[in-house]
Amino acid sequence: MPTVYEVGKQYPDPECPERPLPMSRHETSPAALQRTGTNQRPNPCCFCWCCCCSCSWNEDRERAWRASRETKLETIPNCEACSKPTTEEVKGWAQSFDKLMKNPAGRNVFREFLRTEYSEENMLFWLACEELKSECNKQSIEEKARVIYEDYISILSPKEVSLDSRVREGINRKMQEPSTHTFDDAQLQIYTLMHRDSYPRFLNSAIYKALVQSVSRSSSES
After folding, report:
1. Among candidates 72, 195, 58, which has minimal Cα distance to 123?
2. Confidence of residue 219 (pLDDT cuts 50, 70, 90)
3. Strand (E) positions, the chain?
4. Under a CB-based contact definition with an 8 Å cutoff, are residues 105 and 89 in contact?
């Protein structure tokens, strides 16, 4: 027999039983799934370069991220603004990691892949270091350096990046007088880590392969 607590969870309001939340236009009801005989959702409608549209592809990624908040603790910042990449650009990302990282759309797609591996903090740290290098105001430099340290270097941060002790000790010394180059060694180490570890898997990932097919199909139709 269900307990009072269990009954209360199912019907919080005796006069008005809990109604199911409305589904988005991309979600499929359980009844519809039974009629179609499949548990798969509709195909993703598009690849989103600004990570802000409501297509099912981004909804799935957002749900996966929210499920990991016990360790990540915060939602994902907006992706970089960029235009849709050409077929040549997308295929060029497989030739060179430098080409991928120099292209805003490439960084967004690679970042999406890192998110699936729960290592997006590597890209976020690298981008934060690039932003720091563009600063000229001393006060802004010190403030941004402090934020970067707290977000990605501190062992108390859920987004701590993996650095060796030599680099960490160097950062601790440089933080006494922060500059635009305080994190140069750390940024290079994380760049190398992404290049050697994540980049090969990205090229073999479903995300990248689907993107190549998408832009190739669009190019042939135009």
Report:
1. 195
2. confident
3. none
4. yes
Q: State what percent of residues in the chain have pLDDT above 90.
A: 59
41-82 per-position pLDDT tens digit: 444 334 444 444 444 445 554 554 444 433 333 334 557 777
Amino acid at 120: E
Cα-Cα-Cα-Cα dihedral sign, residues 208, 101, 217, 200: negative
Residue 178 and residue 148 in contact, taking contact as beta carbons nearer than 8 Å: no
Close Cβ partners of 174 (under 8 Å, ≥ 6 residues apart): 181, 182
Q: What is the pLDDT of residues 88-98, one digit of tens each?
A: 999 999 999 99
Query: Average pLDDT of 165-191?
Result: 97
Query: In terms of Cα–Cα distance, which of 195, 142, 125, 193 is closest to 164?
Result: 193
Structure-token match 């002790």, residue found: 165
How many Å apart are CA 189 and CA 168, to the nearest integer? 11
Using DSSP's 3-state secondary structure scheme, residue 208 falls into: helix
User: Which class for 90: exposed (0-12), middle (13-18), buried (19 or more C-beta within 10 A)?
Assistant: buried
Length of the chain: 222
Which single residue is written with the structure tokens 């190398």? 192
Distance CA 107, CA 81 (A): 11
Q: How far apart are CA 112 and CA 217, in angstroms?
A: 21
- What is the C-alpha to C-alpha distance for residues 180 and 137, in angstroms, rounded to an integer? 10
**pLDDT on residue 80:** 74
